[in-house]
C-alpha cells in the first residue's frame, strides 16, 4: 500500500478516536453518578413549598441581580429567564438566553448559580453552558442537576 494512503488512514483513525473520546468524556462529566450516596436529590426542602420559594425569590431578586454585576457585559446581552431558588432559598439558579434574532442562528444558553452566605448573595459558579460536579464541589449536586435541566 502506498505510504500516503497508510498515513491518511492513520490520521483519520486518530482524529475519530479523539472526537469520540472527547464526546464520551463530556458525557461522563455531565452525567450524575448513579452510585453516589448523596441523598440531597430533591428540588426543595420539605419545609419550603414552591410558592414559598417563589415569594422569597420575588423579595431576593434585586439583591441577586445586583450580585451579578461582575458579569454585566455578558448579562447585558442575555435575558435572565427560568430563575429559581433551591433548598432553603439560599441557592439561586437561572438561565441566560440570548434574545432570538429572526432568521439568525440560535445560541447556547448559559446558566449561573449564586449562593447566599451571611445574608449576602455571591456568584458560586460563573456562567457556563453546563455545570459539572468536579468543578463545583461546594455546590449541592441537586442544585447543579436542577440548573442544568433548565
Terminal CA distance: 53 Å
Order of helices and strands: HHHEEEEH
Q: How many E-type strands? A: 4
Structural class: alpha+beta
Helical segment count: 4
Largest sheet: 4 strands, antiparallel
How would you portray this structure in words?
- With 150 residues, this protein is an alpha+beta fold.
- The protein has 2 domains: 1-31; 37-149, no CATH class.
- 39% of the residues lie in helices and 21% in strands.
- It has a 4-stranded antiparallel beta sheet with strand order 1-2-3-4, with helices on both faces.
- The longest helix is centred in the first third of the chain and has 28 residues, at 3-30.
- The chain is elongated and about 70 Å long.
What would a concise description of this structure say?
This protein is of the alpha+beta class. The protein has helices at residues 3-30, 50-67, 72-75, 141-149, and strands at residues 79-86, 91-97, 110-117, 120-128.
Write the layout of secondary structure elements.
Blueprint lengths: L2 H28 L19 H18 L4 H4 L3 E8 L4 E7 L12 E8 L2 E9 L12 H9 L1
Antiparallel strand pairs: 1-2, 2-3, 3-4
Provide key terms for this protein.
150 residues, alpha+beta, single chain, four-stranded antiparallel beta sheet, 2 domains
Amino acid at each position: 500500500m502506498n505510504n500516503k494512503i497508510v498515513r491518511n488512514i492513520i490520521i483519520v483513525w486518530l482524529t475519530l478516536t479523539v472526537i469520540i473520546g472527547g464526546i464520551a468524556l463530556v458525557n461522563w462529566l455531565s452525567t450524575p453518578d448513579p452510585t453516589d450516596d448523596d441523598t440531597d436529590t430533591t428540588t426543595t426542602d420539605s419545609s419550603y413549598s414552591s410558592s414559598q420559594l417563589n415569594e422569597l425569590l420575588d423579595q431576593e431578586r434585586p439583591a441577586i441581580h445586583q450580585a451579578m454585576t461582575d458579569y454585566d457585559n455578558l448579562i447585558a446581552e442575555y435575558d435572565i429567564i427560568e430563575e429559581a431558588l433551591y433548598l432553603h432559598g439560599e441557592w439561586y439558579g437561572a438561565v441566560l438566553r440570548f434574545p432570538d434574532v429572526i432568521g439568525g442562528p440560535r445560541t447556547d444558553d448559559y446558566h449561573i448559580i449564586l449562593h447566599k452566605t451571611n445574608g449576602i448573595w455571591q456568584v458560586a459558579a460563573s456562567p457556563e453552558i453546563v455545570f459539572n460536579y468536579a468543578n463545583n464541589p461546594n455546590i449541592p449536586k441537586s442544585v447543579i442537576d436542577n440548573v442544568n435541566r433548565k
